[in-house]
Amino acid sequence: DEARISVRIKDSLENLRRDDLIKKIESDLNLKLGLEKNEYSLTGVLILFNNLLQSLFKSQILTLGFVMLGIFFMFIILFRNLKLALIGVIPNFIAAFFILGIIGIFNIPLDMMTITIAAITIGIAVDNSIHYIYRFKEEFLKSGDYSKTVKTCHSTVGVAILNTSITIVFGFSILVLSNFIPTIYFGIFTGLAMLLAMLLVLTLLPSFLISFKPFKTK
Asked: Is residue 52 in a domain?
C-alpha cells in the first residue's frame, strides 16, 4: 500500500529554513511513524531547490577560498612585494567576513543570492586597494614620507574611491525596493559590505602602510 501527502509551502517566507524543515519531516517520519528511509520519498520543487542550495554552499566555500588565493597571488605579481600583497588584501577580506558574520548573527537564511555576497564584495572592493596602493607608491617616490603620502592620497585617489563606492552602495541599495526577500537581503548586505570595504581601504590600509613600511625610504 502507498500513500501520497501533498504540502504547499510558501517559498518566499522570510523565516523559511528549507534544510531544517526537510530534516524535521524526515525525523518525524522515522521517529513518529516508524518509517525507514527506503520506505518513503520526499519530492517536489522545495526538495530540488534545497539540494541545489546545499551544493551551492559547498561550492561557494571553495570558490571564496580560490578567490582569496587568486587575488593574493595577483597582488604579489602586481606589486612584487609579499608584505604589500598582504597589506592590500586584508581590508577586503575583513569586510567580506564581517558581513558573513552579521548574516550569521541575525540568523538570515543563506540562499542563491546571499551566499555570493562575500565573493562579489572581494571582487569589486579589491579595485580600491589596487588604486590606492598604486597612487601611494607613485606619491611616495616623490616625497619619501609616509604620513605626507597618506594625506596626498586621501585628497586625490581617496576622493575618487569615496565617490565610486558611494555610487555602488546606492546602486545595490535600490534592491531593497524589491518584493522578493532574498533580493532585499542581497541589496542591503552587498551595499553594507561595499561601504565597509571603502572605510577599511581609507583607514586600515593607510595605517598598515605607515606601520609596516613596505617601501624603502630614501
From this structure: no
Q: Residue holding cell 530534516?
A: 23
Tally the domains of the chain. 1
Map grid coordinates 598604486 to a residue: 134
- 42 occurs within a structural domain: no
Cβ partners under 8 Å of residue 16, min gap 6: 9, 10, 109
Q: Helices (DSSP H) in the chain: which residue ranges?
A: 18-31, 45-79, 82-105, 117-143, 146-155, 157-173, 181-212
pLDDT at 218: 61
- Long-range pairs, 80-88, Cβ under 8 A, ≥24: 81/214, 83/212, 83/214, 84/133, 84/214, 87/133, 87/205, 87/208, 87/209, 87/212, 87/214, 88/126, 88/129, 88/130, 88/133, 88/205
CATH number of the domain to which 174 belongs: 1.20.1640.10
Helices 82-105 and 117-143: crossing angle, nearest 10°?
A: 150
**Residue ranges for the chain with pLDDT beneath 70:** 1, 12-14, 218
* Domain that residue 108 falls in: 57-212
Residue 114 lies in a domain: yes
Of 98, 95, 119, whose CA–CA distance to 199 is shortest?
A: 95
Instruction: Report the pLDDT value the prediction gives residue 12, as an integer from 0 to 100.
Output: 64
Q: So what's the pLDDT on residue 162?
A: 95
| 99 within domain boundaries | yes
Tell me the whole-structure pTM to 2 decimals. Answer: 0.77
